[in-house]
Amino acid sequence: MAAGRTLDGPKAALSAAYWVFVLYLLGPLLLMTAMSFKAAEFIAFPIGETTLDWYAKVVQDGQFLSAVGYSILIAAATTLFATVIGTWIALVVSAESLWLRSLVFALACLPAVVPGMIQAISVRIFIATLDVPTGTGAIIFGHTLHAVPFVMIMALTRLRTMPGSLVDAARDLGADPVVAFLRVTLPYLKPALYGGMIFCALLSIDDFVRTFFLGGYRTTLPMLIFARLQGGMSPEINAMATLVLLTTAVVGLYAEQLTRKARTR
């Protein structure tokens, strides 16, 4: 009995700490969402009358819709390039014959640990040296550079759980390396690639620092919200942020379901 009571104390403390942490994470988001329904044009308590007019205004805002479309375009291109490059690096690092794989792995992970502003400045200097103008191409390059390590790590983690006998069996049946990759390795990597692709897209859409340094005259969604914030907080900005939050949550849940189905298969 005494041992049971002794264990109940730390367990209750851990449970309380967990719920405090959950409240710490969700509290600001819930406040932001609640303020998006405020009828007045300023942010303050109490909320008072509520309205959906801010959401109607946001979905009819041409500048907002243009920024969303531009962000999706950049995210799609970033996801494509980062997935291809990250998967290729994972295959290189997992090769047993490569004696420099630790160095390759460290260099591939470098963009994930370098501060965003430092990386943005260095990429800006790099494209200026190559006489490449800022704009869509430069943004995609910067976002891809940042996203590749995450795809590589996810794909490499999945590759390390793959039985080597699968590829050996495919080659014994007459498959060349390309066919073995397309028929065996790539299907096995699908769960990791699905997660990596969704992660790349969300990273790209949310990236402000690299877009700010590398962007041209067109604005992405984070840059639009930042520009609107210069005039002060308003329920309209909260409505924008809430729509982005809900979309991100839906995409994340769909990606989790897709990943589970792929693993089951």
What's the short version?
This protein is mostly helical and 265 residues long. It is 79% helix and 0% strand.
Please describe the biggest sheet, giving its number of strands, its sense, and whether it closes into a barrel.
Answer: none
How many separate domains make up the residues?
Answer: 1
Instruction: Flag low-confidence runs.
Output: none
General form:
globular
How far is the N terminus from the C terminus? Answer: 47 Å
Helix content: over 70%
Structure explained in plain terms:
This protein is an all-alpha fold. The chain has a single domain, classed as MetI-like fold (Orthogonal Bundle), CATH 1.10.3720. Helices cover 79% and strands 0% of the residues. It has eleven helices and no strands. α3 packs antiparallel against α4. The longest helix has 34 residues. It is globular and about 70 Å long. It starts with a helix and ends with a helix. It comes from Antarcticirhabdus aurantiaca. This is ABC transporter permease.
